[in-house]
Here is the input.
Amino acid sequence: MKHLSVRTSRFTTGLLLLSSLLGTAAHAAPAAPANVTLLNVSYDPTRELYQSENASFSSYWKKKTGQTVTINQSHGGSGKQARAVIDGLEADVVTLALAYDIDAIADSKLLPETWQQRLPQNSTPYTSTIVFVVRKGNPKGIKNWDDLVKPGISVITPNPKTSGGARWNYLAAWGYKQQQTKSPEQAKSFVKALFKNVPVLDTGARGSTLTFTQRGLGDVLIAWENEAHLILKEFGADKYEIVAPPVSILAEPPVAVVDKNVDKHGTRKVAEAYLTYLYTPEAQEIIARNAYRPRSAVAFKKYAASFPSIKLFTLKEFFGTWRQAQKTHFSDGGTFDQIYTP
Amino acid sequence: MNMTLFKGKQRKILPGFGLSMGYTVFYLSAIVLVPLSTIVISAFGMNPETFFGAISSPRVLASYKLSISTAFFASLFDAVAGFLTAWTLVRYRFPGRKILDALVDLPFALPTAVAGICFATLYSPIGWLGQFLAKVNIELINKPSGIVIALIFIGFPFVVRTVQPVIAELEPEIEESAQSLGATRWQTFRKILLPHLFPALLTGITLAFARGIGEYGSVIFIAGNLPLKTEIAPLMIMTKLDQFDYNGASAVAFVLLLISFSMLLLLNGVQRWQQKAYQ
Here is the structure.
């Protein structure tokens, strides 16, 4: 009995000690900690862009608030990344290939459905478009979308079901034809003919890049403009060249703060500042340097050489919202499934 | 009366049946049954229309057909190659045998994506082998044949490792006596060796087959992934997940689970029948 009471009192002392420790810890956590970490969940080709942007924002934030911010990046196919966030990956911000993927996150109540109105220009601080990459000298003489459906031309593009970039590719081809003929029917048979020339459907944009460059498959790769520039930089401008079609789509990869997660982490202020920063002149210049089309006219002018003049149509012109485009073209039974059904 | 009493008190060589059985059931549940049951539960939670709609779309059906047929051909190839390898490793002594033996396990240990990249590099039109094949207009990858190549690699150790110990138990004297009694080589193989080896071989083939149906990592690199032509069933699951179609994905997964499980059940049945026939 005595023995027991000794043990109990020791236990109580321990508890007291522990609670006092915890108490000081709680006490020592004021409103703004010295270090803060953000997780930016992004799509495939933005690795290099956000590496530069993150460094730039960190030093800006340090100067402004004295706080050290570390930004972790995660990259992958846009749909996969959105799913990871839905399944519990605690992204503070998402920067994905297309609005539909962020819509899907909004559907699971992690951010409001009106997220795209929260930042200027549809929450897209940069845009891009879809261009062609061909082998040096352009041996097959590919100049325009119509050249892609010629017999004997092998076209590399990823699977629109799994890749955000591939959806832009698909809609760019479709929109080109629809603009030309005013007929969705002809646009559909055009896209069908194009996909007849596709020997491999990789699951992501990077996969297609590797198929085209490392495996030597295909005469032409349909790719993000920024990815095309990266290919020339990484694999040699002596081996590949970029062909800009006269008409293409204005691709708008949006960004958003994930409300549920930033409120949980207490990072709302810095996360919002991070995304707003993307619209500043410094950030816009980094965007242009990485071959994304900046919103700022100044940055665009400075790097105009990277951006050939292409007549760009918007998603809205032919396809409405992303939710509508997804339903018509890429959901099960949509036009993409139809063109493969005999 | 006495008999039953005696039976009840009979002691096992290893004690603690209750404890070890509890342990087994717990482990099986925690590691195998509970995770798999999530798929079964979500499959049954769907309304039948969604479920059958998901698994009977032409693309999904084509992918099942492709996965099953490629896994089948690959496991047959593995049966022959694996048997010969196991035979050589057991019956002959030669320098480097231990290394070869260890190499057999490599497909088990290797991340499957590594295998996929190797094959894609090897057989691509500018790859080591591919450039010569391209000259004679043979293209192996981005076709079902590419999938079979990957699955042969993945399934190979299953056959070798199941057949090997059985060959090791077979005494060469049995073959010798068969031959001294006038049996031809074919007869010796057919009547003496094969009945012994058949159950193990069948196990190996089934395991390779079941593994092949579910293989994803190595296959997607060289399959081509074209709808209705070269999309494997696991890719359909990934595709559906990427479209946020969790239900569809579970439905496709449930059917795969069913196929694998019934394969293993069938194997059990065949083995039992084989044992009976043999005794």
Q: What stands out?
A: The domain at 48-278 of chain B is CATH 1.10.3720.10 (MetI-like fold). The interface with chain A takes residues 57-59, 120-121, 124-127, 142, 220, 224-228, 235, 238-239, 241-245, 248 of chain B (CB under 8 Å). Residues 1-6 of chain B have pLDDT under 50 and may be disordered. Chain B has one domain: 48-278.
